[in-house]
Amino acid sequence: EDYEDLSSMYQRNRSEGFGSEVKRRIMLGTYALSSGYYDAYYLKAQKVRTLIKEDFDKVFSKYDILVTPTSPTPAFKLKEKVSDPLTMYLSDIYTVPINLAGIPAISLNCGYSKSNLPIGLQIIGKHFSEETILRAAFNFEQNNDVEKKKPSIKPAKHKGAAE
Question: Which domain holds residue 108?
Answer without folding.
Answer: 62-148
